[in-house]
Amino acid sequence: MTDDKPFFRQHVFVCMNKRDDGRECCADKGAHAAQQHLKARVKELGLNRNGDVRVNQSGCLGRCEEGPVIVVYPQGTWYTYVDEQDIDEIIDEHLVGGKIVERLVI
């Protein structure tokens, strides 16, 4: 018997791709610090409990030129961000409030 309910209500992937050939990559645009902030804030808010929100590092998501990049599933919403305030807005508006942050969508 399968359960149609997703294991996590929302699954967030942060591209951490590092390219060594000089092309743009998320790792060179602050992805590590952003992922750490996102994960810590989700934990601080208690969103990481009971299958609610999971934050994972990801390899290349194929959109580094538009990055840095975050994708939220099951919605499949792609975001870029500049700083921790953008990350906080994604958390507060999308992960908590269920509203897409249109200004950061790519």
Automatic annotation (TrEMBL):
Keywords: Iron, Iron-sulfur, Metal-binding
Cofactor(s) required, per the database record: FMN
GO molecular function: iron-sulfur cluster binding; metal ion binding
Keyword hit for Transmembrane helix: no
SUPFAM superfamilies: Thioredoxin-like
Keyword Transmembrane helix (UniProt): no
UniProt xrefs under Gene3D superfamilies: Glutaredoxin
InterPro entries (UniProt xref): Thioredoxin-like_sf
Protein name per UniProt: Ferredoxin
